[in-house]
Amino acid sequence: MKNFLDFEGPIIELKDKISDLKEFMSSKEIDLSDEVNKLEHKLQQLEKKIYKQLTSWDRVQVSRHPNRPTSLDYIQELFTDFLEMHGDRTYGDDPAIVGGICRFEDQPVTIIGHQRGKDTKENIYRNFGMPHPEGYRKALRLMKQAEKFQRPIITFIDTKGAYPGKAAEERGQSQAIANNLFEMASLTVPVISIVIGEGGSGGALGLGVCNHLHMLENSTYSVISPEGAAALLWKDASKAQLAAETMKITAYDLKELGIVDELIPEVKGGAHSNLTAQAKEIREVLRKSLAELKWLERNDLMKKRYEKYKQIGHFSIKEDFKRKVKELVVN
């Protein structure tokens, strides 16, 4: 089974060549601008070709890219005066979820997000972005605080799922997530969620009950990972690629199904290739969502949130299909 990183190899190689050539120009004071421009043009064409033909499984791999921007990366780019808050006032602090108060274009907001690491040491500290119950309780504490002071809530979703370990279960993992779902459904302030990487299972949904749900182009959102689904359905985790295609977990699939409000395009080469440019795309969507939601009354916010989730899974039967069913029943 091919990994997306196998396809990305030529892109990385070409980027390295461009970097080496620029360094050579700088050190030797030789003008090789024409050669650099040709290579950069070739790189653009290669990225366009590769990213245009991504399969669902390829997008899963992109969403897991080790250099993909995290919640803290976007917080630094999009918000000002960020004050991080810690602890759930019950057990302790969970580094797998970060949150606090800040400003988005001078508007006070509460920001909460899953946080994974970028190297082994940080991943261990962040528990690979898989929250414990205290993480969800911390998130809910910040949400209730935002409701008290009438601040909009913005969440960044990026987790394989909630931590399934013994200690997490002993401290009430399922109850913590369920409580978040219950409480978020009735919040009287705007809630905007953006899937920036993987959105896995209840661990993602614990921050995802919202008025507007947006997804980056190469992110995923599902009840289980493709590997987990393949292991359950076919007793073979190596069939993850088939599961990814079947499950309809990409942003394009979910937009078509009416689950996602807006699909956020990624810059050429993926979000990991240019954080600043990607943050600009997110900024436009956030600005639009906040403008649309901030004038709604409290009851309207709850009502629209209810209607949004009530529509998920709704389907209609075509008249010709109804007729065939009636014929079968009669005969």
From TrEMBL:
Its EC number is 2.1.3.15. SUPFAM superfamilies: ClpP/crotonase. Keywords: ATP-binding, Coiled coil, Cytoplasm, Fatty acid biosynthesis, Fatty acid metabolism, Lipid biosynthesis, Lipid metabolism, Nucleotide-binding, Transferase. Pathway: Lipid metabolism; malonyl-CoA biosynthesis; malonyl-CoA from acetyl-CoA: step 1/1. Its main location: cytoplasm. GO terms for molecular function: transferase activity. Residues 38-292 form the CoA carboxyltransferase C-terminal domain. Belongs to the AccA family. Component of the acetyl coenzyme A carboxylase (ACC) complex. First, biotin carboxylase catalyzes the carboxylation of biotin on its carrier protein (BCCP) and then the CO(2) group is transferred by the carboxyltransferase to acetyl-CoA to form malonyl-CoA. NCBIfam families: accA, AccA_sub, PRK05724.1. Acetyl-CoA carboxylase is a heterohexamer composed of biotin carboxyl carrier protein (AccB), biotin carboxylase (AccC) and two subunits each of ACCase subunit alpha (AccA) and ACCase subunit beta (AccD). This is Acetyl-coenzyme A carboxylase carboxyl transferase subunit alpha.
